[in-house]
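Progress report, Aim 2. The chain analyzed during this reporting quarter is listed below.
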Amino acid sequence: MNLRNGQGVENQAPKAPLLSVRDLHVHFPFSRGPFWNRTHGMVRAVDGVSFEIAPGETLGLVGESGCGKSTTARAILNLIPPTGGQVLLEGHRIDGLSERAMRPWRRMAQMVFQDPFASLNPRMTVGRIVSEPMQILGLHSKRDRKFEALRLLEMVGLNPRFLNRYPHEFSGGQRQRIGIARALAAQPRLLLCDEPVSALDVSIQAQVVNLLMDLQQKLGLSMLLIAHDLAVVRHIADRIGVMYLGKLVEVAPAETLYNDPRHPYTRALLSSALIPDPQQQRTRQRIALTGEVPTPDREYAGCRFADRCPIGDSRCTAESPPLAPYPADVTADESLHQVACFYAADDSRWKTQGERKG
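Predicted structure tokens for the chain:
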């Protein structure tokens, strides 16, 4: 299913998801005061996230810093043990597996980290960095690993002569390409990209994004793309999920989300993004959020966005809205657009309470 290319979904048989995340929770205990050995509370970094990724699909995950995007990606690969919920790859549960039991599944799913310098071993040459996953997973002979590393470097746009160089000899964009080559060495079907371009210069970001898109089409990869830059996500993602304080508040096809956002937080997020056209930037409507940013170390009876929401009321503080299909008359199986808001369809609230011109 490729929504970016405008292919209709009604004539295509639905594919079984490659990745299914069901009610994922990641909580971290914390202590305060004189008794540091006692747990005084939990930081609910991820609190009930569910989504699916089909073969060949790219799901973008956006939200402000600290909302749980990176923690979600790491929990999927058991780099952080989930507190609750299920993670399924090709229908097999992988949450809670030991490191040994997880190893076969690491061939199927690999991660590209945010900081390309911190994620590369400075004492290893590029050849060793790219070859190491093959050695750990038992792929290829020792001789063939070198040729495979050369091939992967060429695939990501690096000169094979760089094989014996060290990470500090490369620019940020080149180091990120090495990280991508290392991830591809395991021959994965799913790539989890944790803000792969946020640490790069603007001039380099487009090159890395285009590389990821080319690799996806060439290798048939599925991707979970975490990013702050809304323009990047719109360019590469088929569907987009918006996270706020550990929960998904809206999931929709990319163009639908940008053209018809339904959750107040999504509207506020999009209204803060810059538009290249100066005329549109001056005349656009901005949403001003008031109130303090809530913290993930307390429980909320209602919507976590209620205290800052321009259209919320007492119901929002008392009840937690589920992530439900939009519009309401669409069944869950047919829905491509889901919103966690009681007033997603009530545009009249925005006319009287919501938007202000910036």
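The CA atoms of residues 62 and 242 lie 5 Å apart. The first helix runs from residue 69 to 76. These observations will guide the mutagenesis work planned for the next reporting period.
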